[in-house]
Write a structure and sequence with these properties.
Distance between the termini of chain B: 46 Å
Structural class of chain A: alpha+beta
Strand content of chain A: 25-35%
Number of strands of chain A: 4
Mean pLDDT of chain B: 88
Low-confidence stretches of chain A: none
Low-confidence stretches of chain B: none
Structural class of chain B: alpha/beta
Largest interface: A-B, 24 and 26 residues
Number of helices of chain B: 21
Number of helices of chain A: 3
Number of strands of chain B: 16
Mean pLDDT of chain A: 91
Oligomer: heterodimer
Order of helices and strands of chain A: EHEEHEH
Strand order of the largest sheet of chain B: 1-8-7-3-4-5-6-2
Radius of gyration of chain B: 26 Å
Distance between the termini of chain A: 32 Å
Chain lengths: 89, 575
């Protein structure tokens, strides 16, 4: 299991579109993926879970990845946050 | 064979055209589900039912996704599919079936509701808005499980029966080759009606079709010109409507021929017909109908759809409209809606049409205003000389001065950031409040143009709420006072040497359009579907004829006299 802290950088926060991108990427990996924020822990492959975090721009969260491809998964997921989910917003 | 009787429903004609096809009922009844327990032996079966329902709804979405080439629509559908595949949601539903022994329908219903409640009570406004998407998935699953769902997608040539249709659903329907829409509710100025006219879908509103037992597949006919709706017609009736359809089509084709001619009256006097646009879907109709650009771009919908009124998304929208208009101008009306629709923690107004809306709200919501202005000016740099800004709901000169100050600030900021802009974007005023019409001479000095919003001008002048069905008969755009105000607006504009346009629905009535020309107002904007009919009438008359007509209209003392004048004028000129 590996963990990493990230920050939501895109202006509108983790709204519907970025959530969808995040879930899509995370679901490609076999490893389990969870997000911990404000004491909540949600399944990162669950779009409803991710959306209901309603993470705003600047929110800090902890990514938890656990499984055979955890290294690759974490790398790609963290990169998404870095690149603001590659959607203009 | 059982003898049948046709059922005739009379509604209000809303969008021209004949639709002949089979009834297709658009469900909107509220989904009610009670907790029902199942036996242990039934668990497997209910889990399987859930799997099948999910698969079927996903399949529908995949199909829909394939049909669209719009990136935003595809992204929304993708999120819907992800929701259906959501592992947490699914395991909660499954646990309710095999753990708590609830029937599949209640398991689905209650689990979705937990999420929906979470979304609806969130502090994040965008999340509140998304709940409608989750509700629609819930209902699709439930309808499938209750076997209420249409087994087939909407058949071609369907006559869609609904209580009321939202603009979004209307756009979806427009892609399915339907024959027409019959709504139980709805006034003539609802967005769905305006959109159906613009997309050329026959539509009848205020038709109480529910009082008959209509089933999907029942043969149905509607006439968007007379407001008639007939179920199970006699053969003779079907023939009659087919003939009507042919003659309406013929007339439309005749009128369409006019759209290839110059915008000139019989005597050579020039006029300009432009399009009122709200959705990108409507842009493809600009060229075939000969619209000279966009005389009114409504921005409410795009702003509701974007997250936090994002500048880039707006830039994208305005650019697409500007590109579709070729070298013709685009008049962008600043966000015109009530504040309660868009901001959190705002109590809804008791009288929304007299409330915090249009420029009143924009001046209070500076971020919203500045983002919209920034987007418009960014696009203006790429389309120099093409964009115009229209300020809605002006009721005093102070508001004009205040908003122009904001515009200057946004321009300065962009110029300081070395953004290329068009510094000379004309700033116009929407004249729709009587106080502005009365002050047209004074306010005109501060405006580059006027645009008359006839629907609101009518409702404010006559004190008639235009969405209140009980007093809809009092909503009379042809009230003499409205015409007097229009004349006053024109005089105020002439005094300041600025142009006047009409972008209200009145411009789409060919005879009202002739009257506008008679008053010297030559720039008319309307839904694209109305252009051919208006152009045909204007091209067939001389400006002198129209001036005489306008003079008679302005002399009238009662609405009935004007309606009578309208009935008889212009019929002497043969087609």
């Amino acid at each position: 299991m590996i963990t990493q802290k990230v920050k939501v950088k895109n202006e509108s926060g983790l709204h519907a579109r970025p959530s969808s991108v995040l879930v899509k990427v995370a679901s490609r990996f076999e490893s389990d993926f969870f997000i911990r924020m404000y004491g909540y822990k949600v399944n990162g492959k669950s779009i409803l879970g991710v959306m209901t975090l309603a993470a705003e721009c600047g929110a800090e969260m902890e990514l938890i990845v656990d499984g055979p491809d955890e290294e690759d998964a974490m790398k790609e997921i963290a990169e998404l946050f870095e690149k603001e989910f590659e959607i203009s917003d | 064979m059982k003898k049948h009787h046709p059922k005739v429903v009379q509604g209000t004609a809303a969008s021209a055209g004949i639709g002949i096809g089979t009834a297709w009922i658009l469900e909107d009844e509220e989904t009610i589900v009670r907790p029902e327990k199942i036996e242990k032996e039934e668990v497997e079966q209910h889990l399987e039912k859930f799997e099948n329902a999910k698969k079927s709804v996903i399949k529908d979405y995949l199909h829909l996704k394939k049909m669209t080439d719009d990136e935003d629509v595809a992204a929304i559908i993708e999120a819907q599919i992800q929701t259906l595949k959501d592992p947490e949601l699914n395991s909660l539903i499954e646990a309710k079936i095999h753990g708590k022994k609830y029937g599949v329908i209640y398991a689905v219903f209650s689990t979705f509701n937990e999420y929906i409640q979470l979304m609806e009570t969130s502090d994040a406004r965008w999340l509140n808005d998304r709940s409608i998407d989750v509700i629609s998935i819930r209902d699709q699953l439930i309808h499938f499980l209750q076997d209420r769902r249409k087994k087939q997608p909407i058949p071609k040539k369907a006559v869609v029966l609904a209580r009321e249709v939202s603009p979004t659903v209307l756009i979806q329907l427009s892609r399915m080759e339907i024959s027409g829409i019959v709504m139980e509710k709805g006034g003539l100025t609802s967005h769905a009606v305006i959109l159906s006219q613009s997309l050329g879908i026959p539509c009848v509103v205020g038709a109480p079709w529910k009082k008959y037992q209509i089933h999907n597949g029942t043969e149905a006919i509607l006439d968007g010109v007379t407001g008639e709706v007939i179920f199970k017609p006699f053969d003779s009736q079907r023939e009659e409507f087919k003939q009507r359809e042919a003659s309406q089509k013929h007339k439309l084709e005749e009128n369409l021929k006019w759209t290839r001619k110059p915008h000139e009256a019989l005597c050579g006097t020039k006029f300009t017909l432009r399009a009122n646009i709200e959705f990108l879907e409507e842009l493809s109709r600009l060229a075939p109908f000969g619209a000279k650009g966009v005389g009114l771009l409504r921005t409410e919908t795009i702003l509701f759809q974007t997250e936090k009124f994002d500048v880039n998304e707006q830039v994208d929208f305005y650019s697409k409209v500007a590109e579709a208009s070729n070298h013709e101008p685009v008049t962008i009306r600043l966000f015109d809606a009530g504040g309660d629709k868009l901001l959190d923690n705002v109590a809804s107004d008791a009288n929304p049409f007299l409330g915090w809306r249009g420029v009143r709200m924009l001046l209070d919501e500076k971020v919203l205003l500045e983002k919209q202005l920034e987007a418009i000016y960014r696009v203006s740099g790429l389309h120099k000389g093409k964009l115009k800004i229209l300020i809605p709901m002006i009721s005093s000169l102070e508001e004009v001065i205040a908003i122009k100050k904001h515009i200057e600030e946004v321009k300065t900021k962009l110029l300081n950031d070395s953004v290329e802009i068009d510094p000379d974007v004309p700033i116009g005023i929407m004249v729709e409040v009587p106080s502005t019409a009365l002050m047209a001479k004074e306010i005109g000095r501060h405006a580059d143009f006027f645009s008359i919003g006839t629907n609101d001008l009518t409702q404010y002048t006559l004190a008639v709420d235009r969405v209140n069905e009980k007093i809809s008969h009092l909503f009379q755009p042809n009230h003499p006072s409205v015409w007097k105000l229009i004349k006053m607006i024109k005089e105020g504009a002439d005094h300041n040497n600025i142009p006047v346009a009409v972008c209200g629905e009145m411009a789409s009535d060919p005879k009202a359009a002739a009257c506008f020309l008679g008053l010297g107002i030559n720039d008319l904007s309307m839904n694209t579907g109305a252009i051919p009919g208006v152009q045909a009438v204007l091209c067939k008359h001389t400006i002198t004829q129209m001036q005489e007509f306008a003079a008679l209209v302005l002399e009238a003392e009662q609405t009935a006299q004007i309606i009578e004048l309208f009935k008889h004028w212009g019929n002497e000129n043969p087609d």
